[in-house]
Specification:
By secondary structure, the chain is α+β, with helices and mostly antiparallel strands. The protein is about 30% helix and about 10% strand. The N and C termini lie far apart (about 50 Å).
Length: about 180
């Protein structure tokens, strides 16, 4: 049975923050999106990404107990992603608003799922041990014992960066 994407803000049956056409528009200005193909796969990836985002500890509270997705929320301060943090005169997301970073994060996570980048993600991990043996064999041990960020339940870094300031305890600090 084909998947239907429902993007009603605050809807009881919503399963995505963005439509396929919204995601298509987002990816028009993004490099390395060749995996973003096939209408059914796009829908599945968007639904999977929305479900995964449900696991985050979002700031604020849901607007309505009957809404299917975590957003919209109230009492969530708008964060300045340019690095200045929260302002002295805070503004808040409207109770009928899905923040653009949430939509972008869903698109990025959907693409990540389609790219199946577990092997690439593992290759980008820190090496914690290397050993050479007499038979010219080499053993390399990566951080996370061979688990990718996705396998360990962590969001890809690009997605986590988009969500900074919207998720409790999720603040990236520049060195």
């Amino acid at each position: 049975m084909p998947i239907t994407i429902t993007t009603t803000v605050g809807g009881a049956t919503s399963n995505s923050y963005v439509s396929v056409s919204d995601a298509d528009t987002y990816f028009e200005s993004r490099l390395n999106t060749s995996a973003w193909t096939g209408d059914d796969d796009k829908k599945k990836a968007l639904v999977m990404a929305a479900k995964r985002l449900q696991d985050e500890q979002w700031r604020g509270s849901r607007v309505d107990d009957t809404q299917a997705l975590a957003w919209p929320r109230y009492d969530v301060e708008k964060y300045d992603n340019a690095g200045s943090g929260y302002g002295s005169y805070p503004t808040y997301y409207d109770t009928d608003e899905i923040p653009q970073p949430v939509k972008d994060a869903q698109c990025e996570l959907a693409l990540f799922y389609l790219q199946n980048t577990a092997a690439e993600d593992e290759a980008n991990q820190a090496i914690v041990e290397e050993a050479a043996f007499d038979s010219n064999a080499v053993r390399v041990k990566y951080a996370n014992a061979g688990q990718s960020r996705a396998q360990s339940g962590q969001l890809p870094l690009r997605v986590a960066r988009l969500l900074q300031g919207l998720v409790r305890g999720n603040r990236l600090v520049r060195a």
